[in-house]
């Protein structure tokens, strides 16, 4: 039996040779099964059943709300989000009319005035909404739900369209966390992706957030964009570090022009090579480590005293459709066009097209497009993948006791791949614990994919991003 080796949860090693050899494509595991497994056989009545089950059941944990705002003033060529490009804010008035209908229908099915521990506004560009429109939607939410004083209420910010006064207004509405899109400060790269954003615009928003008492500021960066070089992003990362955000997400650009039409405006010849992308990532990881940021998992970094870091160290980290979270796994209600939610053992996704979303609500029912109800195998594998993604470890005994299985028998098909990764030094496995080694942590998606039965047995039309 291989002796157990203990690793601290924040250790990581960038093993370039291993990454180059094992790099592939795979899910990001904001859920398991992944969203491409949702199907049209799951409909309105199924979702309503699980909402009603929560209302009469014993699950009294607070919930999470996700609100999708699909509008953007301008198009960013790299973007793969569900969005509508317009400068007409009256379109948002009509959208809020329908959002109110959906919120009312959901609240009726839940039956109780649910407590909310997490709220996230995503997009699109949530700050496309005017202050008055933001007042309205928050008023609607508060009418039907109770926002807890200790809750995490976050919003995605585009600094090009937001000034100090709007940030202060967001704080008055109850928002206490924000995510700021930067991507890259290099003007050549910004021109190539049609997102011109100055450092000063960004700093104004961050300074205002601190003035208003926001508890956390996160920034998003992307590597692999057109015209990007190792030097150019090194400069951007240095400037971002100087701004001292609490969290930094460093995403790998997934160029899928057949899936996301705006990406067709990007000249593929301008994209950095795979080797250059690894140079960029390796340099950035080193910069962030030297600046004191802790690797949380996948592409996320946080300050040592951040809630995410503490949750990782304490084994409390969670992962859902909003990314890494500090709260216990809770039901999440998705609101708005294309939004995804989880209630009990089901996932559900709203209509992706605005007309279909409106039509469903005009007909008086929830705008469900597709979803799925998980079986026991799905729930078991979700628990395994969640443990690996969030804690870099798996207690075999805990899984066996919780699900009444023999791990070696149940996962007999997976054991050869576990052993293969063990021989590569990605993990240790002694029959009692599976521990992801420091140099396996940048390849955590590869390790999680071992346990993805749907990926192994069922074809999908989805095109996944690179695992690193």
UniProtKB/TrEMBL annotation:
The lineage of its organism: Bacteria, Pseudomonadati, Pseudomonadota, Betaproteobacteria, Neisseriales. PROSITE patterns: RADICAL_SAM. It comes from the Bacteria. This is Coproporphyrinogen-III oxidase. It is found in: Cytoplasm. Its cofactor is [4Fe-4S] cluster. It holds the Pfam family HemN_C. It comes from Vogesella aquatica. Belongs to the anaerobic coproporphyrinogen-III oxidase family. One of its GO terms (molecular function) is coproporphyrinogen dehydrogenase activity.
């Amino acid at each position: 039996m291989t002796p157990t080796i203990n690793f601290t949860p924040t250790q990581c090693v960038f093993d370039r040779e291993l990454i180059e050899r094992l790099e592939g494509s795979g899910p990001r595991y904001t859920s398991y099964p992944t969203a491409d497994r949702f199907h049209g056989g799951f409909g309105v009545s199924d979702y309503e059943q699980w909402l009603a089950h929560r209302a009469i059941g014993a699950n009294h944990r607070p919930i999470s709300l996700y609100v999708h705002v699909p509008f953007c003033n301008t198009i960013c060529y790299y973007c793969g989000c569900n969005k509508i490009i317009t400068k007409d804010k009256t379109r948002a008035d009509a959208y809020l009319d329908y959002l109110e209908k959906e919120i009312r229908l959901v609240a009726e099915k839940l039956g109780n005035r649910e407590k909310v521990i997490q709220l996230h506004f995503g997009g699109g560009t949530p700050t496309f909404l005017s202050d008055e429109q933001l007042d309205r939607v928050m008023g609607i939410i508060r009418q039907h739900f109770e926002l807890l004083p200790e809750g995490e209420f976050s919003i995605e910010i585009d600094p090009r369209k937001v000034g100090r006064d709007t940030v202060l207004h967001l704080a008055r509405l109850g928002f206490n966390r924000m995510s700021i899109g930067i991507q890259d400060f290099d003007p050549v790269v910004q021109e190539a992706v049609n997102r011109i954003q100055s450092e000063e615009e960004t700093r104004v928003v961050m300074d205002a957030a601190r003035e208003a008492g926001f508890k956390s500021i996160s920034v998003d960066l992307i590597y692999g964009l057109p015209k990007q070089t190792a030097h150019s992003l090194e400069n951007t990362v240095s400037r971002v570090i100087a701004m001292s955000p609490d969290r930094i997400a460093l995403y790998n650009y997934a160029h899928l022009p057949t899936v996301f039409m705006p990406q067709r405006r990007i000249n593929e010849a301008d994209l950095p090579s795979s080797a250059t992308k690894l140079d960029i990532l390796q340099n950035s990881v080193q910069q962030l480590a030297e600046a004191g940021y802790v690797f949380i998992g996948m592409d996320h970094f946080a300050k040592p005293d951040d809630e995410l870091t503490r949750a990782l160290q304490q084994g409390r980290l969670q992962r859902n459709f909003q990314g890494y979270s500090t709260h216990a796994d809770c039901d999440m209600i998705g609101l708005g066009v294309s939004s995804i939610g989880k209630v009990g053992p089901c996932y559900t996704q709203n209509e992706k097209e605005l007309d279909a979303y409106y039509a469903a609500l005009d007909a008086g029912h929830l705008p469900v497009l597709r979803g799925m109800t998980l079986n026991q195998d799905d729930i078991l594998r979700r628990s395994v993948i969640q443990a690996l993604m969030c804690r870099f470890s798996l207690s075999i005994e805990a899984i066996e006791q919780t699900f009444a299985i023999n791990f070696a028998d149940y996962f007999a098909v997976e054991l050869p791949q576990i052993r293969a990764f063990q021989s590569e030094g990605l993990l240790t496995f002694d029959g009692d614990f599976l521990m992801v080694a420091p140099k396996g942590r940048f390849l955590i998606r590869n390790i999680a994919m071992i346990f993805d039965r749907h990926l192994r047995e069922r074809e999908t039309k989805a095109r996944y991003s690179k695992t690193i």
